[in-house]
Design a protein that fits this description.
The structure is a homodimer.
Chain A (H helix, E strand, L loop, with lengths): L1 H17 L21 H4 L5 H8 L2 H10 L4 H19 L2 E4 L1 H18 L10 E5 L26 H8 L3 E6 L11 E2 L3 E2 L1 E2 L2 E5 L5 H8 L5 E6 L5 H7 L2 E4 L23 E6 L2 H13 L16 H4 L11 E4 L6 H9 L3 E4 L5 H13 L2 H9 L32 H23 L2 H4 L7 E5 L15 H9 L3 E8 L16 H8 L10 E7 L5 H21 L1
Parallel strand pairs in A: 2-3, 2-8, 11-12, 11-13
Antiparallel strand pairs in A: 1-3, 4-5, 6-7, 8-10, 9-10, 9-14, 13-15, 14-15
Chain lengths: ~550, ~550
């Protein structure tokens, strides 16, 4: 059986390679020793000048030119497809490749626009990449499990249907870790996804394929999923924007997943893009499609322009941000103060207790879930993300899996989590006494991880992201800068999260993290996606203004 | 220990009796052989003519006169309190009684109105009764458990706070069954609640105290909870209106409960009243208070006048109702057709499978939950609701409790339930092809139970209500008529839900059910409370018009 699964996995990988048009295979790939390959798509020679211009465009420009017909969907989809295939060859970010099908759909959209003069929907002609879990009819969603190879989806996921109705062109699917429960991206079928800014570093996970792909502008908008940081960690590590919406705001029905039936801290789908406009267009289009008529778990809550206009947040004037303090947020603080906003320290409340409840909920049935799937093929469960030739070794599993947990015990953990959420809500409301705005803190600015993208296998701490999953707060990642070898010297530090963290710290030198993006999260409240998008625009603009000045 | 719990329970009951003002204790109570005591509050002599007029008023009138100051809150609260105490003496519907405290709050409200000329909020001065679970600071919420006696609540439930801020006066708490997981109302501490229309019949449960109290106009608006029908069954059996809102629409935080931490088919709080206006005023007031700022599980979804105006339902003209067929819905069908609406048959989809998933979820940890609480005092878990002197005997538990269920097994049940919800949503959407309105069915009209209120101990089938909990559809109960001995003769029937159902059928004669109310549910979609209220008004008006004609 051990041989069998390897053969099946290799077959799938060969199929994938064969699905790439030969003329898009490059012979001038940089050697593995070249770590920063972020500029390669621009210089590789595969894309024409116009294709480079298209793929460099922001989302507003793309949608406007697609809607006017200035750029056909076939042209735009081809440009992004070529760039995605370049990205694949240098970071291994894709799973499913289906060029003909995507271009056929693009041609239909072009035809429709030509005939009727009207767009099909708000995302007319825009190619959109999908994390491997998101079903596209007739295409595999094997999720890195050998067991699920050659089981093409019988129908589209609800989100796929909605995106297609909105005029989008799903065109590639992207890589994930086995089980989805790792903050890195590696599996037995498709292998490992690398960070475009430094290939010795992880792209993050579990939506690591999306992070690398979007970062290289191989896709204008990608869709990831996030149960403990899986949209935000790759967004941060790869220097893109990414939103973790709240439970049920984006329809999840019809996707494959791990740990299905776990209702207490569910995974959510969310967009990744190189600008906030990409995120806003995606969210508005999806919500305007009334997903609750297709997915029973999608919340019946219309897109609210009122909430986007920040009516509950003083119309966006003189906001007060709470900063969850960590190294490197000085830049953000200064930019916000310069823009006329207020910044206070955010006092974390019982974060370690909240982490434990999440691990308790997930761990209650995780191992049985993993074993059930992998037993079908005999493939081993991956116990470390550390590559075989890595210098820093590691002990394996990044969250503790319990066994033999009863349903009643699980309920006790869930009850405790609910009580902690209640306390946290009061804690947030109570900041009304210190903001001076008459309102509680409008949003929290938080690190996304305790470090920039670490070397493969060493991303062992998702606490800065999973805290907001546990509380179900909407959170949007914004890139701030990159690790600068001159500035980012090692600072003295006495406390460590765990042994890996300590080993990582001790092995640190700015060279290791060279070029790695540095990001923050703007964290708002439950089902407040519109306001979080608007406040993120405010933070992003403040940062851009600040950078332009310095 | 067996003696201990009985002594503690008896002590609590004696305290309750002592909390009734002596002058409200009646010496002219009807003998137990008088079954229909629904008219007794009007004739008992305790209430003045004005108090009778107040307690007979509809909710709109009450709120208008309270807001104008024509009736003070002290006057209105006193009137309802007296009537509630009468109800208590004939049906045993109350748990906690706190006259002084309620009247003190009413006096404050009167003072505020006098001083400022303004109401405190939209429910200014209105007494509201609360199911025993809903915490009121300083008062017990023992929920019929001996173990929880003399543990006064440390703070108000979020809903209690919101109601008080809206100007309401919480004034009594109401009776429930032990564990809350029975569709009848009996526990070791407070005993059994009887049906006001026929005391040999059950009031239903688990909000049976509310059902009996509101039905006797001892409270203008009461709050129950509903996990499988617990608001709707007592509303139907006692002839009142009652709404089961969807998960999270009404804040539950700060209440006591059974099976806490069970997140998959949660209980919800909902209003019971003698008119739909009472339900609407309650819902609008609670939602307008932004409960999501106090309860992390409350959905951030404002009250929508647009949805109340039925914009998604053709503005309420020419609706199409699907009737889930059962005896006795002919009246409703005729009334709706006469009012210009359309009626088609609703085809149930996999209802038995859905029931099983709910029983699987609840049963997974129920027994451990019950044992944990009852072990504290040694009180036995109640295994039947049949009184000792009953003619029809019964075997006990009404839903099967599993033991030794693992978290992973629970996830499988939850996954199955999610898939069934997905199928059901498609099933509903697909009715667009048969309604002729261009829309899917606007609402379903369904029975609330397979029978009118049965004799104590024999209510063993909650399928008509729990189906909508499993699907999380909003459902409002409307009274239609009462069992008429001349009309409601026994009809031939071959199929039975179970042995109890068969025994009940065979023991039937119109005399048994004499006077029992007959009701229907108007069932809408998830988080569509506004539309369900509006459509219920349409159904209710059609029924009233129809009755006026005949």
């Amino acid at each position: 059986m051990a041989t069998d699964w390897k053969i099946i996995a290799a077959g799938k990988k060969a199929q994938q390679q064969a699905s790439i048009p030969k003329e898009w295979l490059l012979s001038n790939l940089p050697p593995q020793s070249v770590l920063d390959i972020s500029g390669f798509p621009e210089t590789c020679g595969l894309l024409s000048d116009e294709e480079l211009q298209i793929t460099r465009s922001d989302t507003d420009t793309l949608l406007a030119k697609l809607a006017s017909g200035e750029w056909s969907s076939v042209k735009v989809t081809t440009a992004f497809y070529k760039r995605a295939i370049v990205a694949q060859q240098i970071t291994n970010c894709l799973t499913e490749i289906f060029v003909e099908r995507a271009l056929a759909r693009a041609a239909e959209l072009d035809e429709h626009l030509k005939k009727t003069g009207k767009v099909v929907g708000p995302l007319h002609g825009l190619p959109i990449s999908l994390k491997d879990q998101i079903n596209v009819k007739g295409i595999d969603s094997c999720m890195g499990y050998v067991s699920w190879i050659d089981k093409p989806a019988e129908s589209n996921a609800v989100l796929t249907d909605i995106l297609e109705s909105a005029g989008a062109v799903p065109f590639v699917k992207t890589n994930i870790p086995q089980t989805l429960m790792w903050p890195e991206t590696y599996n037995h079928v498709f292998g490992r996804t690398n960070n475009p800014y430094n290939r010795s570093l992880t792209s993050g996970g579990s939506s690591g394929g999306e992070g690398a792909l979007v970062s290289l502008r191989g896709s204008p908008v990608g869709v990831g999923s996030d149960i403990g940081g899986s949209v935000r960690i790759p967004s941060a590590f790869c220097g893109t924007y990414g939103l973790r919406p709240c439970y049920g705001r984006v329809p999840y029905a019809g996707c494959v997943n791990s740990m299905e039936g776990q209702d207490s801290v569910p995974s959510v789908l969310g967009p990744i893009s190189n600008d906030i406009a990409g995120i806003k267009h995606f969210m508005k289009a999806v919500i305007d499609a009334k997903p609750w008529l297709q997915d029973p778990l999608a919340v019946r809550k219309r897109w609210s322009e009122e909430e986007y206009n920040l009516v509950d947040h003083g119309n966006g004037k003189n906001l007060c941000f709470g900063i969850l303090w960590d190294d490197g947020l000085e830049t953000v603080k200064k930019a916000l103060l310069d823009a006329g906003h207020k910044v206070i320290d955010w006092k974390p409340l019982k974060h370690p207790e909240i982490y434990e409840t999440l691990r308790g909920v997930w761990g209650a049935g995780a191992e049985e879930d993993y074993r059930t799937v992998t037993a079908l093929s005999g493939e081993p469960i991956i116990s470390t993300m550390v590559p075989e030739d890595a210098i820093v070794k590691d002990s394996g599993e990044w969250f503790v899996v319990d066994t033999g947990v009863s349903a009643f015990q699980l309920w006790q953990t869930q009850k405790h989590k609910r009580d902690l959420r209640q306390e946290y809500l009061r804690h947030w409301e109570d900041t009304v006494s210190v903001t001076g705005t008459g309102r509680p803190v409008d949003a929290i600015i938080s690190p996304v991880a305790p470090y920039a993208a670490p070397p493969h296998g060493l991303n062992k701490n998702a606490n800065y992201t999973l805290i907001w999953n546990g509380l179900d707060y909407a959170a949007l990642v914004i890139p701030v800068s990159k690790v600068d070898q001159a500035l980012d010297v090692q600072r003295p530090r006495n406390q460590f999260y765990n042994d890996t963290d300590k080993a990582l710290y001790e092995s640190y030198n700015p060279e290791t993290f060279k070029n790695a993006p540095i990001s923050v999260q703007v964290v708002g409240r439950t089902l407040e996606e519109e306001a979080v998008i608007a406040m993120s625009e405010i933070v992003d603009n403040a940062l851009k203004t600040s950078k332009a000045k310095s």
